[in-house]
Design goal:
Oligomer: single chain
Structural class: alpha/beta
Order of helices and strands: EHEHEHEHEHEEEEHHHEE
Distance between the termini: 26 Å
Bound molecules: calcium ion
Helix content: 40-55%
CATH superfamily of the largest domain: Response regulator
Number of domains: 2
Number of helices: 8
């Protein structure tokens, strides 16, 4: 995973040692990590910037993990974020399931890190397929995130690294309209100052690259909103 394609995992755990061990291991695996020590903080963080996956402890002070899960899963803007619930006992997992909180997966503590990483990747295959090396297809375009190669109508295309990241962002969610600011965050990273006009320049290069062997321009300009694929 290159730096800006790294998916963000939000770790919600009140136990500092457990939170840090998990965060450390996630960072070592190449993920970006956000930390919250209670439910309120988690809800605020998600509102600010939705992560790609949430690892959520059941036992939290005040607002429980179940309540956080229920709230996020009822909000249209956050219900698509996968949630993996952690709980201390398997009976609790049974209860979480029974409560229909909408959690996407459940892991019992003490968990194996290898197992938890596998579960996280399984969720990302659905929501951030390019970031975990999947092959994406849109009409006659194929993007292989593992080998960093792009084909159109079976012919290989030459793309710069920025254009590749732009295309993989688009291909993860065809049809979604991305604002210039959202593309800057995803493709360049939020910690870097780049003018929004830079986005337009690279969109122009991406269009040229995608059409280098002919075919219609698949990138759509949405006036006043941004860009979309298809
Ligand atoms: Ca806890």
């Amino acid at each position: 995973m290159t730096r800006h394609e790294r998916p963000t995992v939000l770790v919600v755990e009140d136990e500092p040692a457990q939170r840090e061990v998990l965060a450390y291991n996630l960072e070592a695996e190449g993920f970006r990590v956000a930390r919250a020590e209670n439910g309120e903080e988690a809800l605020l963080l998600v509102e600010e910037d939705a992560p790609d996956v949430i690892v959520l402890d059941w036992m939290l002070p005040n607002v429980s993990g179940i309540e956080v899960c229920r709230r996020l899963k009822t909000r249209p803007d956050t219900q698509g974020v996968p949630i993996i619930m952690l709980s201390a006992r398997s009976e609790e997992v049974d209860r979480v399931r029974g409560l229909e909180t909408g959690a996407d997966d459940y892991v019992v503590k003490p968990y194996s890190l290898v197992e938890l990483m596998a579960r996280i990747r399984a969720q990302l295959r659905r929501t951030r397929p390019a970031a975990v090396g999947q092959r994406l297809t849109f009409e006659d375009i194929v993007l292989d995130a593992e080998t960093h190669r792009v084909f159109r109508s079976d012919k290989p295309l030459k793309l710069g690294p920025t254009e590749f990241r732009l295309l993989s962002t688009f291909m993860e969610k065809p049809g979604r309209v991305w604002s210039r600011e959202q593309l800057l965050d995803r493709v360049w990273g939020r910690d870097i100052y780049v003018d929004t006009r830079t986005v337009d320049v690279h969109i122009g290069r991406l269009r040229k690259a995608l059409c280098q062997n002919g075919g219609p321009d698949p990138v759509r300009t949405v006036r006043g909103a941004g860009y979309a694929l298809g």
